[in-house]
Amino acid sequence: MCSADRLSVVGSSFGGMTEQEVRWTADRVLALAPDAASRVAGGEVAVAGLWSEAGSSGAGTVWGLCSGGDGAPYRTAVDVADPSGPAYTCGCSARGAPCEHALGLLLLWAGGGGTVPRAPVPEWAEQWVTGRRTGAGEGSTADVAGPPPEAAATEAARRRAERRAERVTAGAEELEQRLADLLRAGLASAGHAGYGMWEETAARMVDAQAPGLATGVRELAALTAGPVRLLEECALLHLLARGWLRRDRLPEGLAATVRTRVGLPASADGPPVRDHWLVLAQYDTADNRLTTRRIWLYGAGSGRTALLLSYGAAGRAPELALPVGEALDAELSAYRGAAGPRAALGERFAAPAPTAVRPAGTSTTRAVARYGEALRDDPWLDSVPVTLDRVVPAPDGDGWQLADADGDTALPLSPTARTRQGLWRLVALSGGAPVRVFGECGHQGFTPLAAWPEGPGEVVPLC
């Protein structure tokens, strides 16, 4: 057993067989999630204050009661000792795969700290784990030994999808009502109500199994730019809720975007594309729930730009890491219906190696047009990946901009870019001469992530 896969090992026995309880890492827990939205939702409920009577046994059972929006706690238990893979049971309706409550409980267990201590197994969890290990008693869909008949599995999946859609619809309708109440009372009332109002609304969206709506509500709480910006974000959240409620009237592509933005699963089932993928940039963002790593890749043969996402518990680096400036011979599969160029990393055929490949560049005018075109398919898109060719960083009042060396147009740098040390590396690399810059172009401006000199030279990471 590799030490990297565990935090602690406790010997015990069950049914005359010696077992070992392996306390997993957060990376291993998050790898169970069926999609990115589930990872985020799991991180949101991995809060000690939401759980009571949580515990773990030496025989590989983890359990706890998670407070629900209607006041009735969800009974959640996980059997981590099954050699065929973990099994779950939960009082919520998402029983076909690890729900956010099972993921949140496992994240608390993996983190240690006494939130999920060793304790005697409660009767309800004991009955469940004993029944499933002996083949008697009920469990969740994930507990059934062996795959069910195809027709039955399809019907069960359809019913689960319908139940979740009903809950998301109820959450969207409630959010619409709360936004309407906020506008009637005036946006100034949001400041007087404080963060608690937003957090309670976000919790209701989590209970409705709409983590995308919950994230949008929490972003409203974090706004400090004044009522105009708050109104803009409320309008976008209203648009998303209305899009879900009227999804049957939308074009299929836009309806798929709405489903993904709300938080429904998206699968990386696009055809695998093998290429030499240049690693353009890699950077982390973190909150008190999750650390998210974004890795941008460029296909030397296909000319495609792709985004890999990797997650870790708060304060811990995600597992996936690739060297910026090198190329990886590998297959990527796109997430169909997912917002943006997100993909999943498939088979790797060779280790990353140095390369002289650079992404093709464009002008600042074309970069803005590209973002506008992308907004037609996804009105909630913050930015698009763009490589600018022959631009010069120049001061612009209190900020900075990237000016076309061969024209009279420019792109302002985003507030995020102006606070990064990468800006000064970009200025030093340029020295007043044109450079090629890869970054994210959006409504707040351009955020440079990597740059190349005009002549021969290696990539300079800016993040």
Overall geometry comes to: globular
**Beta-strand percent range:** 25-35%
Radius of gyration (CA) equals 24 Å
Number of helices: 13
Q: Structural class of the helix and strand makeup?
A: alpha+beta
| End-to-end C-alpha gap | 36 Å
pLDDT averaged over residues:
82
What does this structure look like?
This protein is of the alpha+beta class and 463 residues long. Helix 5 runs antiparallel to helix 7 (195-207), helix 7 runs antiparallel to helix 8 and helix 8 packs antiparallel against helix 9 (227-245). The chain is globular. Residues 1-20 and 136-148 have low confidence and may be disordered. The chain has 13 helices and 18 strands. The chain has helices at residues 26-30, 36-45, 100-111, 123-134, 150-185, 188-193, 195-207, 211-221, 227-245, 252-262, 364-377, 415-418, 422-430; strands at residues 8-14, 17-23, 51-56, 61-66, 74-79, 87-90, 273-286, 290-299, 305-313, 326-334, 343-348, 353-354, 383-396, 399-404, 410-412, 435-442, 445-453, 460-461.
